[in-house]
Every structure is written in structure tokens, then in C-alpha cells.
């Protein structure tokens, strides 16, 4: 059994439907600053460090970075679908299987960091122009059949950014104790 604090070092996401404008702005700031933080924390890492896992059976640092690029591209598209269609059903993907693909274990993080910079730049432009009604637009996630409002999705992805930054810091703190990819 993996200790909960290794799997979720910042805790699990909890959404408050009564979130404030200040919370929404903080989430946007997190989305905006994430690519720079990822770049800063990974720029000087050696190949060995990129292979360190953040927990037993967890992803390596490089898998986390590549996963964030994949995940955030998908989220950006989901936002755009929800803004342009009436409660669309989004397309899920098998993130664990994607994490095992050849591009996910590449030691060169530059393409994924460029993706994050571009996607997050465009995402923040859209987020900063949301109307009150836009935050209540929604999509359906077919895996859970849950209807997700965009303000909840924003909170989730701000948490996702912080969670994966914590995973990378955790991998570096434990210096390969949990194995390497």
C-alpha cells in the first residue's frame, strides 16, 4: 500500500461550488505560472534524475512532465469544446498507457515544455476573457458520466499543476529511492 502523502503530496482535489472570484483568479495565476515553474525545476536535471520516480510504481520525473503536456492539451480542448458547444461529451484518454509510450520516456523535455508554454499562454488568454456565464458552461466526462462546470475544471487543473510540481520535488527529495525508469 502506497502512503497517501506520497501519491497525493498536496492532498486530493476538493471542489467548493461556492468558489470566490479570488479563488478563480488564484487558479488562473497557477495555470499561467506552471510552465515556468516546470522549466525551472527541471532545467538542470541530469538524465539519471529525470528517471527517478516520485513514489513506488509512480511515474518518473520525465513522465510527469510529458504527462502534463498531454493532459493540459486535452484540458484546453475540453474548455474550448464547452465554450463552443452545449454540454459536449469530451473524449477521455488512457493516461497510464500514454505514460508508457516512447515519447513519454524521452529524456528531452523541451518539446513538452514548449507545448505547456503555448497551451497555457492561450488558455490564460481565454480564461481572462470569461464572462460569468462562461464559468458555468460544462462538459460531460463519459468515464464518470459526471457533468463538469468549467470553474470546477479550472480548479482541478490548478490542483493538477501543483500536484505534479510536488511529485517532481518529491522525486528529487528521495533521490531515486523509489527506483528509476
Give a short summary of the structure.
The chain has about 180 residues and is mainly α.
What this model shows, in words?
With 181 residues, this protein is mainly α. 58% of the residues lie in helices and 4% in strands. It is built from 8 helices and 2 strands. The protein has helices spanning 4-7, 21-42, 47-50, 61-84, 95-98, 110-127, 132-135, 150-174, and strands spanning 138-141, 146-149. The protein has a two-stranded antiparallel ribbon. The longest helix is centred in the last third of the chain and has 25 residues, at 150-174. The radius of gyration is 16 Å and the shape is globular. The chain starts with a helix and ends in a 7-residue tail after the last helix. The model has no long low-confidence stretch (mean pLDDT 96).
Topology diagram in text:
Layout: H1 4-7, H2 21-42, H3 47-50, H4 61-84, H5 95-98, H6 110-127, H7 132-135, E1 138-141, E2 146-149, H8 150-174
Antiparallel strand pairs: 1-2
